[in-house]
Amino acid sequence: MLTEKTVTQFLDELASNSPAPGGGSVAALAGAAGAALASMVCNLTIGKKKYVDVQAEMTAVLQQTEKLRKELALLIDKDTEAFNVVMAAFGLPKATEQEQAARTAAIQEATKSATLIPLQVMKTCEQSLHQALIVAQKGNKNSASDAGVAALMLQAGCAGAALNVRINLGSLQDAGFVQQVTEQYTAILQSALKLSREVLAAVDSTIGAN
Amino acid sequence: MLTEKTVTQFLDELASNSPAPGGGSVAALAGAAGAALASMVCNLTIGKKKYVDVQAEMTAVLQQTEKLRKELALLIDKDTEAFNVVMAAFGLPKATEQEQAARTAAIQEATKSATLIPLQVMKTCEQSLHQALIVAQKGNKNSASDAGVAALMLQAGCAGAALNVRINLGSLQDAGFVQQVTEQYTAILQSALKLSREVLAAVDSTIGAN
Questions:
Q1: How close does chain B come to A62, measured CA to CA in Å?
Q2: CB-CB under 8 Å, A178 with B23
Q3: What is the chain A residue with the closest CA to B200?
Q4: pLDDT tens sequence across A134-188
Q5: Is this complex's ipTM strictly greater than 0.95?
Q6: What's the rounded Cα separation, in Å, for the pair B109 and B119?
Q7: How far does B93 lie from chain A, in Å, by closest CA?
């Protein structure tokens, strides 16, 4: 599993001449790091006298961000696995017409699955951004920059996953699936962009103008 | 070292109630992942018949992105180390006036160092974006989404490091240092934003409108 490799090994594998892991897994990693930073700010807020009023809310947020972080961490490996299934389908025999038809069907099916993984990354990043906004508005102000980096990572993870959704949609023949996923990813991307801007505005007002 | 931990361990430490590692290390990690993705696209371009015309250029880009990736990976740990020095300075005794003065001076000095690390992350991300643009324009078109995710990570790394520069500048008394660093980080941030938009425009025209 990619997540059981060291950070150095992960970066080495990323840079290598193998197409997986690639941008899809990195998008999920960015999301997981963003959710983890949101959790950190919760943990640095809970139990502090100054923030006693938001203790219950931060505890609830932390439960969510930890759940979302673990889901995003799993998606790091799921994205690479889904890509490998697509590659395996491309490797199927294509000598006869029957083989060609079976190969095309397998490629289409695998590409659909490989599209739904980054779509899930997008959804999970967007859900995490809702939590990051609460963290930026009500969490420990000493950690304002961490809340901001959380939002930047979640937004980049969402936008990066969107590129992976799009490049896969480009090779799919099922027009209904393409339209449905296009509507979904467009709406998620818009919402994520709006939320990340709101988080960064809250962070800006805390850090002040330097 | 953080980079010798597994990805899972790194995310667990990030989410914990310790302020380091935090957003500064994550910004460096995002930059390192972005540079690694740019390297990957170079590696998937070099040696391909279709891209024989850009072989020499991609080899030169790869040399740069690998150098920048290694620098960014080192900055993951350097940021946390610099933060820990600041925390140690806050822990110095403050019983006498002399101790108070020494403590304040140590905090100021450590905070300056902790400001220059994310500034270096910003510079290295911006330099990597120059390379990512060549990769997006001339690299293997099958990896267009990877070039796009590279740019998103480098841009988020740069913007995230900028938040860390700013939060540190806010507690510094040396007006000359503050002004000099403010001018530098503002210029780098503008350049990085422009470059990442250019990369994403190139990626968009490759992936097409979906």
A1: 10
A2: no
A3: A163
A4: 999 999 999 999 999 999 999 999 999 999 999 999 999 999 999 999 999 999 9
A5: yes
A6: 16
A7: 22
